[in-house]
Amino acid sequence: MSTLEELFRFAAHLFWPRACPFCGALGESACVLCLLPCLEPPMPMDLGSLPLWSGGEHDGVLRELVLALKYGGDRSLGVAMGRALGRIFPRPDADLLVPVPLHRGSERAYNQSLALAAGAAREWGIPAKEGLVWSERREEQTSLGQEERKMMPRDVFSPVTKSVAGKRIVLVDDVATTGTTLERAAETVRRGGGVPVLGLSWTCAPRTKEGMRGVR
Fold first, then answer.
1. Residue 141: how many other CB atoms lie within 10 Å
2. Which residues pair with 159 in a beta bridge?
3. What is the Cα–Cα distance from 105 to 138, expressed in whole angstroms?
4. Within its chain, how far is the Cα of 197 from the centroid?
5. Pseudo-torsion of CA 150, 155, 160, 163, nearest 10°?
6. Residue 6 pLDDT > 70, yes or no?
7. % residues pLDDT > 70 (the chain)
8. What is the pLDDT of residues 69-122, one digit of tens each?
9. What domains are there in the chain, each with its CATH number?
């Protein structure tokens, strides 16, 4: 790391105190290089209508990082996590990374899935942009059981006007629990004239793996 980068990191720590939980580096919510060993081996899967690349099972340190991202108020952590995903997986043949949107009325200050998408975008050289919205106000998925999640209406999302038309889309979510959210998002992209080519998530719930094909 250059002297200028070290100075910037130190200055960032003075104004926004934080340190990498793995190596203690000042000014970093998490170092990308420190995150990489947590994602071995990565998990390519098949949701049925959409391939899914996930960093690992929703357990242990990966789960703790998701909770810190969702509730800790630090968007930069999500960017670092997204960059780590972008390094362990090859660049997909895609035009745009689109995050699963925040629920309507959410009290979170930022969309954690957009932060992940922004990080992966930096590594892959593919732009990230919010392209979907919830069609109606719904309970957050974390409050629903597995069967309730699977019953999600097919029109639960709507595309932002012409945002996905004619584009190959990677859909990004923080956690794939049943895969239903990503599948509904993929259906919405198709209705909007786009082509969903991949789902990307930080983690996948262990109980969900059994219902997916092609797990390695």
1. 17
2. 132
3. 9
4. 15
5. 80
6. no
7. 80
8. 988 888 999 999 999 999 999 999 999 999 999 987 777 778 999 999 999 999
9. 42-138+146-209 (3.40.50.2020)
Give me Rg for the CA atoms of the chain: 17
Q: Report how far residue 176's alpha carbon sits from residue 119's, in angstroms, rounded to the nearest whole number.
A: 18
Element (H, E) at 199: strand 195-204
Residue reference for tokens 């509904």: 184
The predicted pLDDT at position 150 comes to 61
Q: How far apart are CA 51 and CA 53, in angstroms?
A: 7
> Strands (DSSP E) along 49-194, which ranges?
51-54, 96-99, 132-134, 157-159, 168-176
- H/E segment holding residue 191: helix 180-191
Q: Which of 39-48, 87-96, 149-158 has the lowest mean pLDDT?
A: 149-158
94 near 168, Cβ under 8 Å?
yes
Distance CA 156, CA 185 (A): 8
pLDDT for position 215: 36
pLDDT at res. 213: 46
State the DSSP string of 4-25. HHHHHHHHHHHHS--B-TTT--
